[in-house]
Amino acid sequence: MANIDKKFAETGLPWHIVEEAINLEIEWLRQVIVPGPAEKVPGCDECPYTFRKMALLIITGKIKAKEFIAREGHDLWDNLTQKHGVKKSARHGGSWHRRMMDVITEYFEDKGFEVIPEPFLNKGRADLGIYKNGYTDLFAEVGTISPYKLWWNLQMLTNSKILIVPDEKRAIEFTCRDDQGDILRSAQEKGPI
Fold this sequence. Notes:
37% helix, 193 residues, alpha+beta, six-stranded mixed β-sheet, 6 helices
């Protein structure tokens, strides 16, 4: 038993504290990721371990995750959702999806970014690829997403970020590792998402 106690002292936290942290991340991921029925990967998206694998990437520091929530009466996109009539359309329908993609495209183009529809990722395609010299590549997923596809791309992509936009008031940004396996760190983290 003394060897086990010594090992915990050398490696950090006891397993039950780590498991609690993992379970909190899983709970949060289940709240913010909206899986689409047509996008499900049989046996993978229903598997509880897909969320656990994503939680482990966060807990171990291989990726960072940040949630952005708009203030009451506002959106995250300089109120472009009103201009594009997003609130008038059914959420998560084809019309809503297209309008949100237009909002995000205009938001980033106004800030000097190049926006490409449906760029290829390691697994599948993103809804939008957002690029600008001196900034980390950003891949946006609007509405629903396959948890398995997200997990796969989070562990495989380097030097990039994935932005999930489940609705007009929230966005979740995942920062992937750099080529050396470290979390991306940049002096240019200021500015738009």
